[in-house]
Amino acid sequence: MNTPKVSIRALSKRFEGASVNALQQIDLDIAANEFVTFVGASGCGKSTLLRTIGGLETHSSGELLVDGRPVTGPDVDRAMVFQHYSLYPWMSVIENIRFCRQLAAHTRQRSSADVEAASGRADALLRLMGLEASAQAWPNQLSGGMQQRVAIARALMGRPGMLLMDEPFGALDAQTREVMHDLIRHVHRLEKATIVFVTHDVEEAIYLGGRVVLMAPRPGRIDTIYEVPFGDRRDQDLKHAPEFLRLKREILERIRETSGMKTDLEQLQRLSGLAESA
């Protein structure tokens, strides 16, 4: 059996001063080139787990391996894309994309051939993201969707083996988000990177992922893993298919159960009651 890209065993994390574990007894394998999405109620630890895989957080106990090696911090093979684009405003689009090639981890023993290859890589990513006409534009001249495309291109510049995405499309309007869904699936097919994607949007999680990992809160843990049965070739019409809607309903109901709220109306009534008693 091939070694998984990510192997997590009995992983737990407790924030200093917290009364409960942010993560408890997480067990999960993620294969190379897999696209896995994480959903769950607020506070279930999905972003904390993503940041721990990325080396931005440390775990308190258990084992976390990437490519068979313990994660001890960030690495050039694991690129992060966040909801907020974090582009450098003093750099053009193409300069933002090329930025990672200026970091020390990418410049050790770099030859002129490496520099030329990196320039070609940046141009190829511009074309892939549909940003050729905006290569010399400043970030504040771009729409939100275009800024996120730049952020994804920058993350891909160093050819990472893994792309970690924390609600990257959460701030986009519905139409732009659909475009980005198809774009990131296209990128996944071409780049062959493992993608771990955190979202609050169950429809997004099903459409993008080969598996949907549902996490539950208090403490943060894996509750259910859903295999997505729709294959690699997907289009937006799939979101209206009966089997897609059934899976979406099943996951939503499970999220409500794990969060202690069986219905949205129950949650609204409880919030209303808290407001009246305040």
From TrEMBL:
SUPFAM superfamilies recorded: P-loop containing nucleoside triphosphate hydrolases (SSF52540)
Identify the residues that the record assigns to the ABC transporter domain, covering every copy. 6-238
Keywords linked to the UniProt accession? ATP-binding, Cell membrane, Membrane, Nucleotide-binding, Transport
Asked if the Swiss-Prot or TrEMBL record annotates the protein with the keyword RNA-binding, the reply is no
Q: Which residues form a coiled coil?
A: none
Describe the family membership recorded for this protein in Swiss-Prot or TrEMBL. Answer: Belongs to the ABC transporter superfamily.
The name on file for this protein is ABC transporter ATP-binding protein
State the species of origin: Hydrogenophaga crocea
The organism's taxonomy opens as: Bacteria, Pseudomonadati, Pseudomonadota, Betaproteobacteria, Burkholderiales
